[in-house]
Design goal:
About 70% of the residues lie in helices and about 0% in strands. It is an all-alpha fold and about 70 residues long. It has a domain of about 40 residues. α1 runs antiparallel to α2. The longest helix is centred in the first third of the chain and has 31 residues.
Amino acid sequence: MWALLSRHLRVWLLLAVGAPLLAWLLGKIGDAVERRRGPNTLSKLTRSGRRYLERRTRGPLRRHEQTDPERLAR
């Protein structure tokens, strides 16, 4: 089935579904590690991986940036 999909559709599916799920999973792992052992290299790496994937995610599962109310008031 996967081979029957076009290359562009496969890339879109990976970015639209796979990347947000992986970002969510990295965030959960980072939170769990940090709760258990405090801030350390592993928790920082998982959080930076989550931020990296969130910036490159597109599609329906993308997290939209929160608008800063103070910035809008200016």
